[in-house]
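During the first year of the project, the team set up a workflow for recording each protein of interest as an amino acid sequence followed immediately by a discrete structure-token representation. This format lets reviewers and collaborators read both layers of information side by side without switching files. As required by the reporting guidelines, we include two representative entries from the current panel. The first entry is reproduced here exactly as it appears in our internal archive.
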Amino acid sequence: MTTPPKRKDHPLSMRLPEGDIAIIDRAADLRGRSRTDFVREAAVRAAEQVLMESTLVRMSAEGFEAFVQAVSAPAAPVPEMVASLRRRAPWDKATAKR
């Protein structure tokens, strides 16, 4: 006798007010996603953020000293960012080319 394949998905059920469902459905539709895909993605993203906020980072004393020096050093200009900030905004009529 063969064993059935192990299920990879786990159901999750919620009770939500009609207004919440309407907002979720509207946002999912704007993204071209199903309600399930939209809610799953949003829940996973929120969970990842919480985990990142509460993750303890350990490093050696030498590593910490290198980190402190890196964040304490004066900022160096990034040529691509400087060039981007010097460009005129296309919607700025006063400086737009005629």
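The second entry, processed by the same pipeline in the following quarter, appears below.
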Amino acid sequence: MEHPFADLIDLKVIAQQAGYSRLTLAANAQHMNPHQVVHGAVIFAMADTGMGAALYPTLAAGELCATIEIKIAYFKPARAGELVCETRIVNRGRRVASLESEVRSGETLVAKASGSYSIFMPGG
């Protein structure tokens, strides 16, 4: 599926299946904040996009999903290099799904996020 924002920040979906996704991003100068670490919004975008990617294959024909809320905890700064975001569905109901994402730089856990997504039919 085309994803213009992911293209803008060079975020790649490496694996996607029902309930799971793995995304990578090669962090470079365009992703840094003034302190020369990856901007928190980039890491947040990885988690948000990863959650959608894990949920999307579980949707029925015509269904859509949208973020309700995401809580993220940042543990370590990320610097230039590859970041990996792995996401899993924790629970999926008929109308709401709960997911968790972990963003790593190598073996280092950079951030962990938990989120809720609405599942709906357009116009319904």
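For the second entry, the following points were noted during internal review. The first helix runs from residue 4 to 9. The CA atoms of residues 18 and 57 lie 5 Å apart. Both points are flagged for discussion at the upcoming steering committee meeting.
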